[in-house]
Design a protein that fits this description.
By secondary structure, this protein is an alpha/beta fold. It folds into two domains: 16-38 and 110-235, no CATH class; 41-100, no CATH class. Helix content is 40%, strand content 8%. The longest helix is centred in the C-terminal third of the chain and has 15 residues, at 213-227.
């Protein structure tokens, strides 16, 4: 997987008991979204001129320049990240712009996917997690901690595009609902589930272990509307 910087709705973790109390007293449902492979430079300054004109990575630089380039970093940010700038920034806050002195960094030394997801979801740095191999996570994530509380039983779920998430959540131990990689969705969950399952099987992904984000999003949204989990993680 790619070297990553995680952009998330909030930082995990406080104690699960504190989180549970907060949810019971205020918000009833929490959705945490992570984006894999996103740099802070694009989040805050939009398209990078050096990258969109690099023929090693871009087939049609003229098209990207037309769609996403502007001399103003703020305008480039709006062109590339309209939801972040028009919704998140106005209704919440965005942190992590290093050019403004808002420095946010992972604490683990590895700077890639599995160690990063472990840190986000468990709140712990585990230097023993040093690969992206499908090794069951020895650490307990916030989803598992909540899942084992009566008020949250069957009320946590994770949908991810990457097929390593069952190991990251250690599903055999945690019993957290996980749909990731090329897993189908339950066909009685919503009307179009059989069609989307068929399309997922028929439409090739560029990667052998990562499905297209559109399927992850559609599955997660349908599950959210049908089951209304108290904590839902969507990893794209």
């Amino acid at each position: 997987m790619k070297t990553i910087l995680k952009v998330s709705a909030f930082s995990l973790i406080a104690l699960a008991s504190d989180f549970a109390a907060a949810v019971q007293n205020t918000t009833q449902n929490v959705v945490l979204v992570t984006l894999d492979g996103v740099r802070w430079q694009e989040v805050f300054s939009g398209a990078d001129k050096n990258l969109i004109n690099n023929s090693d990575f871009v087939k049609k630089p003229e098209q990207l320049n037309t769609e996403f380039w502007h001399n103003s970093p703020a305008k480039r940010q709006q062109l590339l990240m309209p939801f972040i700038t028009q919704i998140v920034a106005k209704q919440g806050i965005i942190m992590g712009n290093r050019e403004q002195g808002s420095n946010m960094s992972v604490s683990n030394p590895w700077y890639f996917s599995y160690p990063g997801y472990n840190e986000i979801l468990s709140g712990e740095v585990d230097e023993g997690i040093n690969s992206n191999n499908k090794i069951p996570n020895p650490n307990h994530t916030i989803l598992e901690r909540l899942e084992h509380q009566p008020a949250f039983k069957n009320n946590t779920a994770l949908f991810g595009s990457w097929d390593v998430f069952p190991s990251i959540l250690n599903t055999e131990r945690s019993k957290v609902y996980v749909n990731a990689g090329f897993m189908p969705i339950e066909e009685d969950l919503f009307e179009n589930a059989p069609l989307l399952n068929a399309m997922q099987n028929e439409i090739p992904s560029p990667w052998s272990n990562v499905r297209l984000d559109s399927f992850t999003y559609r599955f997660a949204k349908a599950y959210m509307l049908a089951k209304k989990p108290k904590l839902l993680v969507i990893s794209l």
